[in-house]
Write a structure and sequence with these properties.
homodimer, Rossmann fold, seven-stranded mixed beta sheet, elongated
Chain lengths: 234, 234
Amino acid sequence: MISVVIIGSGNVATHLAATFLKVDTIAMTQINSRNLNSIPPADVTIIAVSDNAISEVSSKITNSFVVHTSGSVTMDALKNTGSKGVFYPLQSFSKEKTVDFTQIPFCLEAENKDDLSKLETLVSVLNGKIYHINSEQRKSIHVAAVFVNNFTNHMYTIADDICKQYDVPFEILTPLIEETSLKIKNLSPKEAQTGPAKRNDTETIQNHLNLLSRAQQDIYLKITQSILDYGKKL
Amino acid sequence: MISVVIIGSGNVATHLAATFLKVDTIAMTQINSRNLNSIPPADVTIIAVSDNAISEVSSKITNSFVVHTSGSVTMDALKNTGSKGVFYPLQSFSKEKTVDFTQIPFCLEAENKDDLSKLETLVSVLNGKIYHINSEQRKSIHVAAVFVNNFTNHMYTIADDICKQYDVPFEILTPLIEETSLKIKNLSPKEAQTGPAKRNDTETIQNHLNLLSRAQQDIYLKITQSILDYGKKL
Protein backbone atom coordinates (compact mmCIF):
# COMPACT_ATOMS: atom_id res chain seq x y z
CA MET A 1 0.00 0.00 0.00
CA ILE A 2 1.33 3.43 -0.92
CA SER A 3 -0.30 6.58 0.48
CA VAL A 4 -0.76 9.65 -1.72
CA VAL A 5 -2.00 13.15 -0.97
CA ILE A 6 -2.96 15.37 -3.90
CA ILE A 7 -3.17 19.10 -3.25
CA GLY A 8 -5.15 21.14 -5.75
CA SER A 9 -8.49 21.22 -7.52
CA GLY A 10 -7.54 21.88 -11.17
CA ASN A 11 -7.62 19.51 -14.13
CA VAL A 12 -4.42 17.60 -13.36
CA ALA A 13 -5.31 17.19 -9.66
CA THR A 14 -8.82 16.02 -10.46
CA HIS A 15 -7.85 13.52 -13.16
CA LEU A 16 -4.96 12.07 -11.11
CA ALA A 17 -7.12 11.79 -7.99
CA ALA A 18 -9.98 10.13 -9.88
CA THR A 19 -7.59 7.55 -11.30
CA PHE A 20 -5.71 6.85 -8.04
CA LEU A 21 -9.01 6.42 -6.19
CA LYS A 22 -9.78 3.40 -8.35
CA VAL A 23 -6.52 1.64 -7.46
CA ASP A 24 -6.67 -0.82 -4.55
CA THR A 25 -3.00 -0.48 -3.65
CA ILE A 26 -3.15 3.31 -3.22
CA ALA A 27 -4.56 5.22 -0.26
CA MET A 28 -5.64 8.53 -1.75
CA THR A 29 -6.54 11.89 -0.17
CA GLN A 30 -7.31 14.99 -2.21
CA ILE A 31 -7.08 18.37 -0.49
CA ASN A 32 -7.84 21.89 -1.58
CA SER A 33 -4.83 24.21 -1.40
CA ARG A 34 -6.71 26.46 1.04
CA ASN A 35 -6.78 23.55 3.48
CA LEU A 36 -3.06 23.11 4.12
CA ASN A 37 -3.28 22.92 7.91
CA SER A 38 -4.91 19.49 7.77
CA ILE A 39 -2.62 17.49 5.49
CA PRO A 40 -2.29 13.84 6.54
CA PRO A 41 1.13 12.18 6.31
CA ALA A 42 1.75 10.33 3.02
CA ASP A 43 4.48 8.50 1.11
CA VAL A 44 4.06 10.93 -1.78
CA THR A 45 2.52 14.41 -1.56
CA ILE A 46 1.62 15.74 -4.99
CA ILE A 47 1.17 19.50 -5.42
CA ALA A 48 -0.94 20.08 -8.54
CA VAL A 49 -1.53 23.84 -8.33
CA SER A 50 -0.73 26.69 -10.73
CA ASP A 51 2.98 27.25 -11.43
CA ASN A 52 3.27 30.46 -9.45
CA ALA A 53 1.68 28.94 -6.33
CA ILE A 54 4.05 25.94 -6.12
CA SER A 55 6.71 27.62 -3.95
CA GLU A 56 4.29 29.06 -1.42
CA VAL A 57 2.13 25.95 -1.10
CA SER A 58 5.16 23.67 -0.77
CA SER A 59 6.67 25.88 1.95
CA LYS A 60 3.76 24.98 4.22
CA ILE A 61 4.07 21.20 3.86
CA THR A 62 6.01 19.14 6.35
CA ASN A 63 5.44 15.73 4.73
CA SER A 64 8.52 13.65 3.93
CA PHE A 65 8.40 13.71 0.12
CA VAL A 66 6.74 16.45 -1.95
CA VAL A 67 6.51 16.66 -5.75
CA HIS A 68 4.94 19.11 -8.18
CA THR A 69 3.35 18.29 -11.56
CA SER A 70 4.55 21.21 -13.67
CA GLY A 71 6.47 21.06 -16.94
CA SER A 72 7.98 24.51 -16.62
CA VAL A 73 8.99 24.79 -12.96
CA THR A 74 12.32 23.44 -11.67
CA MET A 75 12.46 20.94 -8.81
CA ASP A 76 14.25 23.56 -6.68
CA ALA A 77 11.17 25.79 -6.74
CA LEU A 78 9.74 23.46 -4.08
CA LYS A 79 10.28 25.03 -0.63
CA ASN A 80 9.28 22.10 1.61
CA THR A 81 11.78 20.95 4.22
CA GLY A 82 11.59 17.26 3.24
CA SER A 83 12.79 15.74 -0.02
CA LYS A 84 11.64 16.98 -3.43
CA GLY A 85 10.65 15.62 -6.79
CA VAL A 86 8.68 16.17 -9.98
CA PHE A 87 5.80 14.08 -11.38
CA TYR A 88 4.90 15.69 -14.72
CA PRO A 89 2.31 13.93 -16.91
CA LEU A 90 2.91 15.07 -20.48
CA GLN A 91 -0.62 15.36 -21.80
CA SER A 92 -3.26 18.00 -22.45
CA PHE A 93 -5.95 17.90 -19.78
CA SER A 94 -9.39 19.42 -20.05
CA LYS A 95 -12.29 19.45 -17.60
CA GLU A 96 -14.77 17.86 -20.00
CA LYS A 97 -12.78 14.81 -21.01
CA THR A 98 -11.74 11.86 -18.85
CA VAL A 99 -8.06 11.02 -19.18
CA ASP A 100 -6.73 7.60 -20.00
CA PHE A 101 -3.25 7.58 -18.48
CA THR A 102 -2.29 4.40 -20.34
CA GLN A 103 0.82 5.13 -22.38
CA ILE A 104 0.96 8.74 -21.14
CA PRO A 105 4.59 9.76 -20.59
CA PHE A 106 5.45 10.82 -17.04
CA CYS A 107 8.59 12.91 -16.62
CA LEU A 108 10.05 11.95 -13.25
CA GLU A 109 12.71 13.65 -11.16
CA ALA A 110 13.72 13.11 -7.52
CA GLU A 111 16.66 13.78 -5.20
CA ASN A 112 17.30 10.14 -4.39
CA LYS A 113 16.64 6.62 -5.70
CA ASP A 114 14.11 5.65 -3.02
CA ASP A 115 11.88 8.61 -3.85
CA LEU A 116 12.27 8.03 -7.57
CA SER A 117 11.15 4.44 -7.15
CA LYS A 118 7.99 5.64 -5.33
CA LEU A 119 7.14 7.81 -8.34
CA GLU A 120 7.87 4.91 -10.68
CA THR A 121 5.40 2.80 -8.71
CA LEU A 122 2.71 5.44 -9.16
CA VAL A 123 3.31 5.60 -12.92
CA SER A 124 3.14 1.80 -13.10
CA VAL A 125 -0.26 1.60 -11.43
CA LEU A 126 -1.48 4.27 -13.90
CA ASN A 127 -0.05 2.22 -16.80
CA GLY A 128 1.89 5.30 -17.88
CA LYS A 129 5.35 5.43 -19.44
CA ILE A 130 8.35 6.31 -17.25
CA TYR A 131 10.92 8.90 -18.38
CA HIS A 132 13.76 10.18 -16.19
CA ILE A 133 13.97 13.86 -17.05
CA ASN A 134 15.92 16.59 -15.28
CA SER A 135 14.59 20.10 -14.74
CA GLU A 136 16.29 21.65 -17.77
CA GLN A 137 15.14 18.86 -20.09
CA ARG A 138 11.61 19.14 -18.72
CA LYS A 139 11.51 22.86 -19.54
CA SER A 140 12.57 22.09 -23.11
CA ILE A 141 9.83 19.44 -23.35
CA HIS A 142 7.34 22.04 -22.19
CA VAL A 143 8.37 24.39 -25.00
CA ALA A 144 8.31 21.57 -27.54
CA ALA A 145 4.82 20.71 -26.28
CA VAL A 146 3.72 24.28 -26.99
CA PHE A 147 4.75 23.77 -30.62
CA VAL A 148 3.05 20.38 -31.10
CA ASN A 149 -0.07 21.20 -29.07
CA ASN A 150 -0.86 24.94 -28.76
CA PHE A 151 0.71 26.04 -32.04
CA THR A 152 -0.63 23.07 -33.98
CA ASN A 153 -4.09 23.79 -32.61
CA HIS A 154 -3.70 27.37 -33.86
CA MET A 155 -3.01 25.99 -37.35
CA TYR A 156 -6.36 24.18 -37.02
CA THR A 157 -8.00 27.46 -35.96
CA ILE A 158 -6.75 29.30 -39.04
CA ALA A 159 -7.87 26.40 -41.27
CA ASP A 160 -11.27 26.50 -39.58
CA ASP A 161 -11.46 30.22 -40.37
CA ILE A 162 -10.58 29.63 -44.02
CA CYS A 163 -13.27 26.92 -44.22
CA LYS A 164 -15.88 29.27 -42.75
CA GLN A 165 -14.86 31.99 -45.21
CA TYR A 166 -15.52 29.66 -48.17
CA ASP A 167 -18.50 27.81 -46.69
CA VAL A 168 -16.77 24.45 -46.36
CA PRO A 169 -17.31 22.13 -43.34
CA PHE A 170 -14.16 21.95 -41.19
CA GLU A 171 -14.82 18.22 -40.56
CA ILE A 172 -13.62 17.58 -44.12
CA LEU A 173 -10.09 18.15 -42.77
CA THR A 174 -10.22 15.77 -39.80
CA PRO A 175 -8.96 12.63 -41.62
CA LEU A 176 -5.98 14.65 -42.91
CA ILE A 177 -5.34 16.03 -39.43
CA GLU A 178 -5.34 12.54 -37.98
CA GLU A 179 -3.08 11.15 -40.71
CA THR A 180 -0.62 14.02 -40.17
CA SER A 181 -0.38 13.18 -36.47
CA LEU A 182 0.05 9.44 -37.10
CA LYS A 183 2.64 9.76 -39.87
CA ILE A 184 5.41 10.88 -37.50
CA LYS A 185 5.20 7.60 -35.60
CA ASN A 186 7.02 5.99 -38.52
CA LEU A 187 8.82 8.91 -40.16
CA SER A 188 10.81 11.76 -38.62
CA PRO A 189 8.98 15.10 -39.02
CA LYS A 190 11.67 16.23 -41.46
CA GLU A 191 11.10 13.16 -43.64
CA ALA A 192 7.32 13.60 -43.40
CA GLN A 193 7.41 17.23 -44.62
CA THR A 194 5.61 17.81 -47.93
CA GLY A 195 3.84 20.72 -49.59
CA PRO A 196 4.52 23.83 -51.68
CA ALA A 197 6.94 25.35 -49.14
CA LYS A 198 9.05 22.18 -49.08
CA ARG A 199 9.12 22.09 -52.91
CA ASN A 200 9.60 25.88 -53.09
CA ASP A 201 6.61 25.88 -55.48
CA THR A 202 6.29 29.65 -55.75
CA GLU A 203 3.31 29.52 -58.12
CA THR A 204 1.14 27.52 -55.70
CA ILE A 205 2.33 29.66 -52.79
CA GLN A 206 1.22 32.80 -54.67
CA ASN A 207 -2.16 31.23 -55.47
CA HIS A 208 -2.63 30.40 -51.81
CA LEU A 209 -1.74 33.92 -50.69
CA ASN A 210 -4.41 35.32 -53.05
CA LEU A 211 -7.09 33.41 -51.11
CA LEU A 212 -6.02 34.58 -47.65
CA SER A 213 -6.71 37.59 -45.45
CA ARG A 214 -3.83 39.90 -44.58
CA ALA A 215 -3.27 38.29 -41.15
CA GLN A 216 -3.46 34.78 -42.64
CA GLN A 217 -0.97 35.74 -45.38
CA ASP A 218 1.39 37.00 -42.73
CA ILE A 219 1.54 33.72 -40.83
CA TYR A 220 1.49 31.66 -44.06
CA LEU A 221 4.59 33.50 -45.31
CA LYS A 222 6.41 33.21 -41.99
CA ILE A 223 5.97 29.44 -41.72
CA THR A 224 6.68 28.92 -45.43
CA GLN A 225 9.98 30.80 -45.00
CA SER A 226 10.80 28.71 -41.92
CA ILE A 227 10.16 25.47 -43.84
CA LEU A 228 12.41 26.72 -46.66
CA ASP A 229 15.16 27.63 -44.16
CA TYR A 230 14.92 24.23 -42.48
CA GLY A 231 15.14 22.56 -45.91
CA LYS A 232 18.47 24.30 -46.50
CA LYS A 233 19.80 23.02 -43.17
CA LEU A 234 19.41 19.39 -44.28
CA MET B 1 -19.57 -2.52 -64.30
CA ILE B 2 -17.91 0.88 -64.55
CA SER B 3 -14.72 1.35 -66.56
CA VAL B 4 -11.94 3.59 -65.29
CA VAL B 5 -8.68 4.74 -66.82
CA ILE B 6 -6.09 6.31 -64.56
CA ILE B 7 -3.35 8.36 -66.19
CA GLY B 8 -0.21 8.97 -64.16
CA SER B 9 2.36 7.14 -62.06
CA GLY B 10 2.63 9.27 -58.91
CA ASN B 11 1.33 8.54 -55.41
CA VAL B 12 -2.33 9.39 -56.02
CA ALA B 13 -2.45 7.44 -59.31
CA THR B 14 -0.77 4.41 -57.78
CA HIS B 15 -2.91 4.26 -54.63
CA LEU B 16 -6.18 4.81 -56.52
CA ALA B 17 -5.27 2.20 -59.13
CA ALA B 18 -4.25 -0.35 -56.51
CA THR B 19 -7.56 0.08 -54.73
CA PHE B 20 -9.77 0.05 -57.88
CA LEU B 21 -8.01 -3.11 -59.08
CA LYS B 22 -9.38 -4.97 -56.07
CA VAL B 23 -12.99 -3.99 -56.83
CA ASP B 24 -15.00 -6.53 -58.90
CA THR B 25 -17.40 -3.94 -60.31
CA ILE B 26 -14.64 -1.74 -61.78
CA ALA B 27 -12.66 -2.37 -64.96
CA MET B 28 -9.38 -0.60 -64.34
CA THR B 29 -6.55 0.46 -66.68
CA GLN B 30 -3.53 2.47 -65.51
CA ILE B 31 -1.50 4.32 -68.12
CA ASN B 32 1.67 6.36 -67.98
CA SER B 33 1.21 9.94 -69.20
CA ARG B 34 3.84 9.36 -71.91
CA ASN B 35 1.51 6.76 -73.42
CA LEU B 36 -1.44 8.95 -74.36
CA ASN B 37 -1.89 7.57 -77.87
CA SER B 38 -3.21 4.26 -76.59
CA ILE B 39 -5.94 5.25 -74.14
CA PRO B 40 -8.90 2.85 -74.15
CA PRO B 41 -12.41 4.29 -73.90
CA ALA B 42 -13.75 4.48 -70.32
CA ASP B 43 -16.71 5.79 -68.32
CA VAL B 44 -14.34 7.87 -66.19
CA THR B 45 -10.84 8.94 -67.19
CA ILE B 46 -8.84 10.13 -64.19
CA ILE B 47 -5.79 12.33 -64.79
CA ALA B 48 -3.54 12.07 -61.74
CA VAL B 49 -0.49 14.02 -62.90
CA SER B 50 1.31 17.09 -61.54
CA ASP B 51 -0.77 20.29 -61.48
CA ASN B 52 1.08 22.00 -64.31
CA ALA B 53 0.70 19.00 -66.65
CA ILE B 54 -3.10 18.72 -66.31
CA SER B 55 -4.01 21.08 -69.18
CA GLU B 56 -1.61 19.55 -71.67
CA VAL B 57 -2.37 15.93 -70.83
CA SER B 58 -6.14 16.54 -70.90
CA SER B 59 -5.94 18.26 -74.29
CA LYS B 60 -4.84 14.95 -75.83
CA ILE B 61 -7.70 12.86 -74.46
CA THR B 62 -10.84 12.21 -76.50
CA ASN B 63 -12.67 10.08 -73.91
CA SER B 64 -16.18 11.18 -72.95
CA PHE B 65 -15.59 12.22 -69.32
CA VAL B 66 -12.25 13.38 -67.93
CA VAL B 67 -11.47 14.42 -64.34
CA HIS B 68 -8.34 15.56 -62.52
CA THR B 69 -7.40 14.85 -58.89
CA SER B 70 -5.89 18.18 -57.86
CA GLY B 71 -6.91 20.37 -54.95
CA SER B 72 -5.54 23.57 -56.39
CA VAL B 73 -6.50 23.44 -60.09
CA THR B 74 -9.92 24.58 -61.36
CA MET B 75 -12.14 22.27 -63.39
CA ASP B 76 -11.75 24.63 -66.35
CA ALA B 77 -8.04 23.88 -66.56
CA LEU B 78 -9.04 20.61 -68.25
CA LYS B 79 -8.71 21.01 -72.02
CA ASN B 80 -10.38 17.81 -73.22
CA THR B 81 -13.24 18.10 -75.68
CA GLY B 82 -15.65 15.90 -73.67
CA SER B 83 -17.16 16.70 -70.31
CA LYS B 84 -15.07 17.62 -67.27
CA GLY B 85 -14.94 17.00 -63.57
CA VAL B 86 -12.80 16.85 -60.43
CA PHE B 87 -12.13 13.86 -58.18
CA TYR B 88 -9.95 15.19 -55.35
CA PRO B 89 -9.16 12.85 -52.45
CA LEU B 90 -8.31 15.01 -49.44
CA GLN B 91 -5.51 13.03 -47.85
CA SER B 92 -1.73 13.02 -47.62
CA PHE B 93 -0.27 10.29 -49.80
CA SER B 94 3.21 8.88 -49.56
CA LYS B 95 4.95 6.13 -51.51
CA GLU B 96 5.81 4.03 -48.46
CA LYS B 97 2.39 3.79 -46.89
CA THR B 98 -0.71 2.04 -48.24
CA VAL B 99 -3.80 4.23 -48.16
CA ASP B 100 -7.06 3.21 -46.59
CA PHE B 101 -9.67 5.23 -48.48
CA THR B 102 -12.36 4.42 -45.91
CA GLN B 103 -13.74 7.70 -44.58
CA ILE B 104 -11.41 9.74 -46.77
CA PRO B 105 -13.27 12.84 -48.05
CA PHE B 106 -13.54 13.13 -51.83
CA CYS B 107 -14.25 16.59 -53.21
CA LEU B 108 -16.36 16.05 -56.32
CA GLU B 109 -17.25 18.45 -59.12
CA ALA B 110 -18.77 17.80 -62.55
CA GLU B 111 -20.59 19.66 -65.31
CA ASN B 112 -23.75 17.54 -65.12
CA LYS B 113 -25.62 15.19 -62.81
CA ASP B 114 -24.89 12.00 -64.76
CA ASP B 115 -21.16 12.55 -64.54
CA LEU B 116 -21.38 13.52 -60.88
CA SER B 117 -23.21 10.29 -60.12
CA LYS B 118 -20.42 8.27 -61.82
CA LEU B 119 -17.93 9.93 -59.47
CA GLU B 120 -20.20 9.25 -56.51
CA THR B 121 -20.26 5.57 -57.48
CA LEU B 122 -16.46 5.48 -57.46
CA VAL B 123 -16.31 7.08 -54.01
CA SER B 124 -18.86 4.57 -52.74
CA VAL B 125 -16.86 1.56 -53.85
CA LEU B 126 -13.84 3.08 -52.12
CA ASN B 127 -15.91 3.61 -48.93
CA GLY B 128 -14.91 7.26 -49.02
CA LYS B 129 -17.01 10.27 -48.02
CA ILE B 130 -18.71 12.36 -50.70
CA TYR B 131 -18.49 16.18 -50.68
CA HIS B 132 -19.80 18.40 -53.46
CA ILE B 133 -17.22 21.16 -53.72
CA ASN B 134 -16.83 23.79 -56.41
CA SER B 135 -13.46 24.94 -57.75
CA GLU B 136 -13.16 28.00 -55.52
CA GLN B 137 -14.08 26.05 -52.38
CA ARG B 138 -11.63 23.33 -53.33
CA LYS B 139 -8.80 25.85 -53.58
CA SER B 140 -9.64 27.13 -50.12
CA ILE B 141 -9.60 23.55 -48.80
CA HIS B 142 -6.18 23.09 -50.36
CA VAL B 143 -4.86 26.13 -48.47
CA ALA B 144 -6.52 24.99 -45.24
CA ALA B 145 -4.88 21.59 -45.78
CA VAL B 146 -1.48 23.28 -45.98
CA PHE B 147 -2.11 24.71 -42.50
CA VAL B 148 -3.30 21.46 -40.87
CA ASN B 149 -0.83 19.20 -42.66
CA ASN B 150 2.35 20.94 -43.92
CA PHE B 151 2.47 23.68 -41.29
CA THR B 152 1.51 21.37 -38.44
CA ASN B 153 4.23 18.98 -39.53
CA HIS B 154 6.67 21.90 -39.41
CA MET B 155 5.64 22.49 -35.78
CA TYR B 156 6.61 18.84 -35.17
CA THR B 157 9.96 19.48 -36.90
CA ILE B 158 10.79 22.41 -34.63
CA ALA B 159 9.75 20.39 -31.57
CA ASP B 160 11.97 17.54 -32.77
CA ASP B 161 14.86 20.01 -33.04
CA ILE B 162 14.27 21.28 -29.50
CA CYS B 163 14.20 17.69 -28.22
CA LYS B 164 17.51 16.90 -29.96
CA GLN B 165 19.04 20.07 -28.52
CA TYR B 166 18.19 18.95 -24.96
CA ASP B 167 18.74 15.22 -25.47
CA VAL B 168 15.10 14.21 -25.05
CA PRO B 169 13.47 11.49 -27.20
CA PHE B 170 10.89 13.01 -29.60
CA GLU B 171 8.62 9.98 -29.06
CA ILE B 172 7.76 11.43 -25.63
CA LEU B 173 5.57 13.94 -27.51
CA THR B 174 3.60 11.48 -29.66
CA PRO B 175 0.71 10.89 -27.20
CA LEU B 176 0.25 14.66 -26.90
CA ILE B 177 0.39 15.03 -30.69
CA GLU B 178 -2.29 12.39 -31.09
CA GLU B 179 -4.52 13.87 -28.37
CA THR B 180 -4.22 17.32 -29.99
CA SER B 181 -5.43 15.92 -33.31
CA LEU B 182 -8.32 14.02 -31.71
CA LYS B 183 -9.54 16.86 -29.49
CA ILE B 184 -10.94 18.88 -32.41
CA LYS B 185 -13.36 16.09 -33.24
CA ASN B 186 -15.42 17.19 -30.25
CA LEU B 187 -14.35 20.81 -29.73
CA SER B 188 -13.89 23.61 -32.25
CA PRO B 189 -10.19 24.56 -32.58
CA LYS B 190 -10.93 27.90 -30.91
CA GLU B 191 -12.47 26.12 -27.91
CA ALA B 192 -9.59 23.65 -27.81
CA GLN B 193 -6.91 26.38 -27.66
CA THR B 194 -4.84 26.39 -24.46
CA GLY B 195 -1.34 27.46 -23.48
CA PRO B 196 0.68 30.52 -22.45
CA ALA B 197 -0.22 32.51 -25.59
CA LYS B 198 -3.95 31.98 -25.02
CA ARG B 199 -3.60 33.05 -21.36
CA ASN B 200 -1.18 35.86 -22.31
CA ASP B 201 1.16 34.39 -19.69
CA THR B 202 4.13 36.67 -20.44
CA GLU B 203 6.38 35.12 -17.78
CA THR B 204 6.12 31.60 -19.26
CA ILE B 205 6.49 33.01 -22.77
CA GLN B 206 9.73 34.75 -21.74
CA ASN B 207 11.02 31.56 -20.10
CA HIS B 208 10.29 29.65 -23.31
CA LEU B 209 12.08 32.23 -25.47
CA ASN B 210 15.19 31.89 -23.30
CA LEU B 211 15.45 28.20 -24.27
CA LEU B 212 15.12 28.74 -28.03
CA SER B 213 17.49 29.55 -30.87
CA ARG B 214 17.04 32.84 -32.73
CA ALA B 215 15.07 31.24 -35.59
CA GLN B 216 12.88 29.28 -33.16
CA GLN B 217 12.20 32.45 -31.13
CA ASP B 218 11.15 34.20 -34.29
CA ILE B 219 8.45 31.67 -35.19
CA TYR B 220 7.41 31.23 -31.54
CA LEU B 221 6.75 34.97 -31.24
CA LYS B 222 4.88 35.15 -34.54
CA ILE B 223 2.46 32.35 -33.69
CA THR B 224 2.06 33.57 -30.10
CA GLN B 225 1.08 36.99 -31.44
CA SER B 226 -1.35 35.39 -33.88
CA ILE B 227 -3.02 33.41 -31.05
CA LEU B 228 -3.30 36.61 -29.01
CA ASP B 229 -4.85 38.45 -31.98
CA TYR B 230 -7.33 35.63 -32.58
CA GLY B 231 -8.24 35.69 -28.88
CA LYS B 232 -9.21 39.35 -29.22
CA LYS B 233 -11.46 38.56 -32.18
CA LEU B 234 -13.65 36.25 -30.06
